[in-house]
Amino acid sequence: xxxxxxxxxxxxxDPRLHTVAKPVVAFDDRLRALIERMLATMYDASGxxxxxxxxxxxxxxxxxxxxxxxxxxxxLVNPVIDWASAETRKGEEGCLxxxxxxxxxxxxxxxxxxxxxxxxxxxxxxxxxxxxxxxQHEMDHLMGKVFVEYLSPLKRNRIKGKLLKSQREAQKA
Length: 173
Ligand code: NI
Hints:
This protein has helices spanning about 30-45, 130-140, 155-170, and strands at about 50, 60-65, 75-85, 90-95, 105-110, 110-115, 120-130. By secondary structure, it is α+β, with helices and mostly antiparallel strands. The strands form 2 sheets. Strands 1-2-3-6-7 form a 5-stranded antiparallel sheet. A two-stranded antiparallel ribbon has the order 4-5.
């Protein structure tokens, strides 16, 4: 079997990153193939999470792996946050759609999420630490929100300028 083809990742400030995703309705071969390709794309880019939005598929699907060993994929289809801790913490975040940029974002330190797996089975995941942060970050993508939108307009504009410049240079090269 060939490894799955990698998917191109949209880069901020691509306006498609602000699309609100629709629920996944069919748990079929197409969905399973998309999940495999998203996982391969995430691992190839050394990311810990990837939302379908980032590969220009506007459905409620995210893949995550926060393990050191990169062998514990978590697939969340149609995720819903049932509970988020009132206690928050500011931690450094990055994003495959915002390469080279890291900044602090305030997030709940723990969440309880209801989601389906690739087969459509429902389950509840209780997460804390890096996994809780990652779930919140990826679920923001499904709502069309990129983490830089939590930063000040000044910072965000600076990041936008920097990324547009590097995208122009990459096109010339
Ligand atoms: Ni991201």
